[in-house]
Amino acid sequence: MTALITEKQGAGKAEPESRILLHATAEDHHVARMAAVALGLTILEGAIPSPLPGVKPGLANIVTLIVLARYGWRTAVWVSLLRVFAGSLLFGNFLTPGFFLGLSGAVLSLLTLALTHYLPSRWFGPVTQSVCAAFAHIAGQMAVVYLWLIPHAGIVYLIPVFAAAALVFGTVNGLIAARFMDNEKTTTYPQITRITQIKSD
Amino acid sequence: MQYVKAGDWWVLLVASVCLVIFTLKVWGGERAEKAVIRSGGHIFLETSLSINQQIEVPGPLGLSLIVIENRKVRIAKDPSPRQYCVRKGWLQQAGEIALCLPNQVSVELVGSYKRYDSLNY
Question: Are residues B10 and B39 in the same domain?
Fold first, then answer.
């Protein structure tokens, strides 16, 4: 309480030196907004019952795909990783095996998207990116499962199930993302202006 | 379908083919090469599956009849009371096994190499 008062008094005269100000740029706000949409989709699909742990539609990746197409790979990395971290905090599984499974999948997906981003867009659309990212996702997860959780060759028998799910959900997510992008060609969407210099007033 | 471009179709096709091949390889199991017949804990006979034959194996309760036909094997007749090994039916993949415990007779299919599992370590 006293600390608060002294700070108020100090603030009356001049800017207190101990205060930390985070300048959030327009881009930061936008990344946060997109990550929030992705989070909403993650929670939504948490309500869908899954036949096997780990088989999920991955609806949040639709957001990642759209962000990748519109704002580039760096922004997609921000949105995707923010979603993984904030999602784990919401679900209460931060730093649990489930969190590391999601993180490894997301990281490998993003690395794959960095490569598929360079495919000629005349021939390859969001469906290709989505399917490749989905396969990379299960590859990352299976790597963590094998190297850390279940170091047994028996998990290879599960790969067909996960791969089939990746193919189906990857295609569906890619189609949804393509549809959204198609809609947005006619509508306007917020432009990001990169602020490279932080105002220091 | 205007959202799927030509390259996308190819990616989907290649992914599907890879998935089918991989699934068959993983779940298909290994081709069985020979049958190992045990009686009383000792190997009674190891025989190739390419020869159709009927083998009578003696046990404490009597004779078990093992039939090999078309690279498949089954226990056709057995004196055990519950007939579990007879009801197991035809075995055709490496690693499959039929056990007649009361008569101490078993038949196991093995591939070109022996795989490790929790029973054989």
Answer: no
Per-residue confidence in pLDDT tens, chain A, 201 aa: 334 444 444 445 555 567 888 888 888 999 999 999 999 999 998 888 887 877 889 999 999 999 999 999 999 999 999 999 999 999 999 999 999 999 999 999 999 999 998 899 889 999 999 999 999 999 999 999 999 998 888 888 889 999 999 999 999 999 999 998 887 766 665 666 655 555 554
Contacts of B6 in chain A (CB under 8 A): 123
Query: Do residues B12 and B56 share a domain?
Result: no
The number of beta carbons lying within 10 Å of the beta carbon of residue A122 is: 9
Q: Domain coordinates of chain A in residue numbers?
A: 24-184
Q: How far is CA B59 from CA B48, B51, B88, in A?
A: 22, 24, 19
Cα within 13 Å of Cα(A111), Cβ side: 11
Identity at A161, one-letter amino acid code: V
Does A128 sit within 8 Å of B8, measured CB to CB?
Answer: yes
CATH number of A24-184, picked from 1.10.600.10, 1.10.10.10, 1.10.1760.20, 3.40.50.300: 1.10.1760.20
Indicate if B69 and B98 belong to the same structural domain.
Answer: yes
Name the one residue in this structure whose structure tokens are 């471009």. Answer: B5
Nearest to B3 among A132, A157, A179 (CB): A179
